[in-house]
Design brief:
- Helices cover about 25% and strands about 30% of the residues.
- The chain has a 5-stranded mixed β-sheet with strand order 5-4-3-8-9. Strands 1-2 form a two-stranded antiparallel ribbon. It has a two-stranded antiparallel ribbon with strand order 6-7.
- β4, α2 and β5 form a beta-alpha-beta unit.
- The longest helix has 19 residues.
- The radius of gyration is 14 Å and the shape is globular.
- The mean pLDDT is about 95.
């Protein structure tokens, strides 16, 4: 298996239209004109993903005040995402990519190291997308804990 192609600043963000935790669909095109933080996580309701989602939830007001919309994406089905949203009072959209086509397009699905072994799976990543749909930041293999605080510093929000 080969390494997944990764996005870099200046690349166009791959378009998507995916089902959400509310049963609606969300597309990147609908978010044009706004900056977007698209964060990729492996599985809803796991400890690391819950910590990361709650960190985004707790920072959402200041991110939105700076003009950023937050969207979480995972391969989980919409029903599981709805339970995740409800359980942890998440206040931003969660989108479902069960066939992993969008995750692959973003370079966030492929080979990764897990406990010293090479496996194929979701690569925890964050993408900051500008108002025109271009990648500003493409961060791969981010940590679940402390990532939002680092992102806020990188975006000069602290």
């Amino acid at each position: 298996m080969t390494a997944t192609a990764r996005l870099a600043p200046g690349d166009p963000a791959p378009e998507f239209e995916l089902p959400t935790d509310t049963g609606e669909t969300l597309s990147l095109n609908e978010l044009r004109g706004r900056k977007v933080v698209l964060y990729v996580y492996p599985a809803a309701m796991t400890p690391g993903c819950t910590k990361q989602a709650c960190d985004f939830r707790d920072s959402l007001t200041s991110l939105q005040a700076a003009g950023y919309e937050v969207v979480g994406i995972s391969p989980d089905k919409p029903a599981k995402l709805a339970k995740f949203r409800e359980r942890d009072a998440l206040t931003f959209p969660l989108v479902s990519d069960p066939d992993k086509a969008v995750l692959t397009a973003y370079g966030a699905f492929g080979e990764k190291q897990l406990y010293g072994k090479t496996v194929t799976g979701v690569i925890r990543s964050t993408f900051v997308i500008d108002e025109d749909g271009k990648i500003i930041k493409a961060l791969y293999n981010v940590k679940a804990t402390g990532h939002v605080a680092k992102l806020r510093r990188d975006l000069d929000l602290d």
